[in-house]
Design a protein that fits this description.
alpha+beta; Alpha-Beta Plaits; two-stranded antiparallel ribbon; about 25% helix
């Protein structure tokens, strides 16, 4: 089963409050200069949570599958990641 197929087995309960944040947007610009395109957070995230628009990092937390990979991959430890509030976020769907 491909990653894309596995993503379809998830059910989302969208939270109005993000569980992801960028601590310092300037660090993201440093990462762009140092690592070029794509940055580690952009390339490692299976759900395409992070993207760039007009030289600014965009966080689409609604897509997050809560794997934590982007937080671990950030060379500046610049991603604030916490679990969504109780009852929100993803839930596995079986059968």
């Amino acid at each position: 089963m491909t990653t894309e197929e596995k993503l379809y087995t998830l059910r989302y309960k969208k939270d109005d409050e993000s569980h992801l944040a960028i601590a310092d947007a300037n660090k993201c610009l440093e990462c762009t200069a140092k690592y070029g395109e794509p940055q580690p957070c952009v390339s490692i995230c299976p759900a395409n949570v992070f993207s760039w628009q007009n030289n600014k990092i965009i966080v689409s937390y609604e897509n997050c599958v809560e794997c934590g990979a982007s937080r671990i991959s950030c060379p500046y430890d610049n991603i604030i990641w916490k679990y969504p509030r109780f009852g929100k976020g993803i839930a596995l769907r079986y059968g």
